[in-house]
Amino acid sequence: MDVSQALRERRSVRAFTSQVPSADLVQQLMQDAALAASGGNMQPWRVAAITGDALQAMLADVAQAPGEENPAHLSYPPNLWEPYRTRRFANGEDLYASIGVPREDKAGRLKQLAKNASFFGAPVGIVMFTEERMGPVQWMDLGIYLQSFMLRATEEGLATCAQGFWRRYDAVVKQHIAVPEGYLVTFGIALGYEDKTAPINRMRATRAAFEEWGQLKGF
C-alpha cells in the first residue's frame, strides 16, 4: 500500500472487532509516527497505548465522571459559521442515518455519542499528551503525528478513529496513564480491526471540491 492509497482508505471507524493488535505492532506504529515533522524538531508529544484490564479500569472511571470541556481547547469554535457549520451538520446527519437514528430520536443519538467514552469498543486506546504551555504551532505538530499514526495503521490493515473527546477526561485519564506535571490530554485514537458488518462503518464523509479551497498560481 502506498501513501495515496492509505489516504484514500483511512476513515473514522466506529465499530471494532475484539481482536487485539500485538504490542510490537502498536509500538512500531507509535515509533514510525514519531518521524513526523515538527517545528524545531521539538517533538512536543507524549503518547500512550492502553488495552486489556488497564483500559477497562480507565473506561469504568470515565463512565462515572462528568466530562469537562477546557475553554482553551474546544473541538469547534463557538457559533460556527459557514461553510463549516453546514459541513459539520451534514457529517452528523450522515453518521446517524447510517445507523437509522433520526434527528428526533435524541436518546438514540446520545447513546451513540456515549460510545466515544469507550473508544467505540476498540481494544486499544491511544492517548496523546502535550505540555499545557505549548502553543498553536506545537498543536499543528501533534496533528502531523496523529495523521502519520493513522496512515501507518491503515497500511497495516488496522482501523482508527481520532477523538478530541478525550480532552474532556484529562484528569481521569491521568489517573491511569502517568505523564509529567503540566501535561494535558490532546487527542485519543481508537485503534483495532474494523467490524466490517457494522452499519456505521459504511458511512463515508464527503470532501469539498478543490475549487472551494485550493488555488494554483504561476503554473
List keywords for this structure.
219 residues, flavoprotein, 39% helix, alpha+beta, four-stranded antiparallel β-sheet, FMN, oxidoreductase, Nitroreductase
Q: Overview of this structure, please?
A:
With 219 residues, the protein is an alpha+beta fold. It has helices at 3-9, 23-33, 52-64, 84-98, 106-114, 136-155, 170-176, 210-213, and strands spanning 46-51, 124-131, 159-163, 183-192. Strands 1-2-4-3 form a four-stranded antiparallel β-sheet, with helices on both faces. It is globular, with a radius of gyration of 18 Å.
Question: How would you sum up this structure in a few lines?
Answer:
With 219 residues, the protein is an alpha+beta fold. It contains eight helices and four strands.
N- and C-termini, Cα separation: 30 Å
Instruction: Assign the structural class, choosing from mainly alpha, mainly beta, alpha/beta, alpha+beta, or little secondary structure.
Output: alpha+beta
Low-confidence spans: none
Strand order in the largest sheet: 1-2-4-3
| Radius of gyration from the alpha-carbon trace, in angstroms | 18 Å
Overall pLDDT, averaged?
95
Largest sheet: 4 strands, antiparallel
Overall spatial form: globular
Number of helices: 8
What oligomeric state is this? single chain
Q: Percent of residues in beta strands?
A: 5-15%
The arrangement of helices and strands along the chain is HHEHHHEHEHEH
Measured as a percent range, the helix fraction is 25-40%
Number of distinct beta strands: 4
